## 1
Amino acid sequence: MDFKALLAATKTIAVVGMSNRPERPSFVVASVMRQGGYRIIPVNPQYAGTTILGEPCVASLADITEAVDIVDCFRRSEDMVGVATDAAAMSPLPKVLWMQLGVANDDAANIARDAGIDVVQNKCLETTYLALR
């Protein structure tokens, strides 16, 4: 996958498992990506209806009504089948289902790929972005 081209074409990133706590990896990664000019959509049922990084948090991917380029996932590997299924139901489809460092699930990857979504597993979006700037 051409990460440089992907990031150049990306405008919006849905962050699944987003925390409102600044010390959490999801908050740090989303902050860096937001500072890089990307729109962040926080996704976490625990914080739905609140604002994180100036953006309204939604409960699930099904609650997003706009185009998303990357679904960035901070969930356990065993939870990824549900996330992939939700991503595959989005319209329009996201370009990439991105599983963060330490997160990998081949069944979820197959669900996403079968729907036409590219997949990245076990890789940090922030690290990739910073390396390509």
## 2
Amino acid sequence: QGQDHISGFINEMVISQPGSKIGKRDLMEQFKIWFQDSQGNKKMPKGVEIHEQMTKKYGMCKKDGWHNVGFMLPDEEEDDINDL
């Protein structure tokens, strides 16, 4: 079941982005925020499981993280509405 959450996170939040990279710490911080928002107080999957899924989809993690991937940014339209 944890694999489903991880796949959901990666599909929703991680995108191919040439020139960008995601480090392990950043990945875990974003996953923790996403998981709490979407799953509440359920037990979070282990970091090693998330790293394995990222490696399957985006290749081996280098010393400084996965290269040519980035986080999907939330739509900025909300910010524009707040400026009115």
## 3
Amino acid sequence: MEPIIATVSQLNAYLKRVVDGQPILNDIWIKGEISNFKQHYSGHLYITLKDDGGVLKAVMFKSAAVHLLFRPEDGMKVLARGRIGVYEQSGTYQLYINEMTPD
């Protein structure tokens, strides 16, 4: 059998399709602690959610962030709802947050 040879871009695009095709990942709640909180001048929020066993990068775009009823801070425990997606350019997966509440 011949080996499969793919470019980085082809692999990232394939993995994006695989992840996007998983219904459970399109609307999921994640519980974690905020770290590395950054609010971009555009209004987008960039955070890392963590627990004792791992970390997950996350982004909340301005259109969703304007509806927050609290100010996120490092160390805050939250429940975040959104979808898991692959950012093809860097080949990383992250949570795209639509809703977030203190836990």
